[in-house]
Amino acid sequence: MIFVTDGTFEGILSAVFEAYAHKEEPEAIVSRAHFQLTLFSEVRDIETQPDKSDRVYRSVVEKMSQEAIEELYRAYLGEDPDVGLAIYRYIKVGLKVGRRVLSYLQHPDVLRVHDMSRRVAMETHTFTGILRFTRLKNGIYYAKMEPDNNIIMLLAPHFADRLNDQPWIIHDAKRNLYALYNTEQVVFSDEVLPIRDDERDEEFELLWRKYFQAIAIESRINPRLQRAFMPRRYWKNLPEKNKI
């Protein structure tokens, strides 16, 4: 039995509801984008229904904890093709052990979601430190990134708090997603915005490079350590990249 969803978190929770409602044991819960028909498999197309996903959501919070649903959501943001089944199996264990599920890492289904969630949390933490904003000609601050995981929704609240008096845009170029902040609220969009590299304020990038030079002590520069803390794949979106 293969459950096929729209790939959203709500879609996965709707699939979990259907599995319990019909007492079915899916061998896979996949998005339509990753679905491949195989011989001898029964396929069920799962409609995303907010009332059903909300019931599963509330059940996780009430019987496990708010932290448990946050763990599941972070795992989902890792975009692993098998995350749907991993979430289902985690919930299945959690309904048995209750609030102990977060520390129940001896169970492989719990450990798998924990590891997925931890990778997302670690990359989110990394980008709170390395994301760089440059000032566009229209006065808006712009940051471009290409993270491994879909972390823009986790990053935006941090920068809305830290840069609350400046309008800014965080652009996930890998997924074509935007977080836009107008000093009052954050709005997320997947519409293509007219932002080109040649619209950036070159003087602002130069300021970042001068800052990096000022704090770097020649005798203490350690390229190997820098690469360990800031993997090479992130460098191209850093204004001070030429000094790393």
Report on this model:
The chain is of the alpha/beta class. It folds into 2 domains: 2-123, no CATH class; 131-243, no CATH class. It contains 8 helices and 8 strands. The chain has helices at 9-21, 50-63, 66-77, 83-97, 108-130, 152-162, 202-215, 223-229; strands spanning 2-5, 28-31, 43-45, 134-135, 141-145, 168-172, 177-181, 186-189. The strands form 2 sheets. The chain has a 5-stranded mixed sheet, with helices on one face. Helix 1 (9-21) packs across helix 4, helix 2 (50-63) crosses helix 3 (66-77) and helix 4 packs across helix 5. The longest helix is centred in the middle third of the chain and has 23 residues, at 108-130. The N and C termini lie far apart (50 Å). 28% of the residues are buried.
Briefly summarize what is shown:
This protein has 244 residues and is of the alpha/beta class. It contains eight helices and eight strands; from the N terminus they run E-H-E-E-H-H-H-H-E-E-H-E-E-E-H-H.
Which key features would you list for this structure?
single chain, 244 residues, alpha/beta, 2 domains, five-stranded mixed sheet, three-stranded parallel sheet, 8 helices, 13% strand, elongated
Largest sheet: 5 strands, mixed
Shape: elongated
What is the chain-wise order of helices and strands?
EHEEHHHHEEHEEEHH
Q: Percent of residues in beta strands?
A: 5-15%
Total domains: 2
Number of strands: 8
List segments where confidence is low: pLDDT < 50 over at least 5 consecutive residues: none
Q: State mean pLDDT (0 to 100 scale).
A: 85
Q: Strand order within the widest sheet?
A: 4-5-6-7-8
Percent helix, as a range, is: 40-55%
Q: Treating each run of at least 4 consecutive H or I residues as one helix, how many helices?
A: 8
The rounded distance between the terminal residues' Cα atoms is 50 Å
Oligomer: single chain
Give me the Rg, rounded: 21 Å
**Structural class based on helices, strands and sheet pairing:** alpha/beta
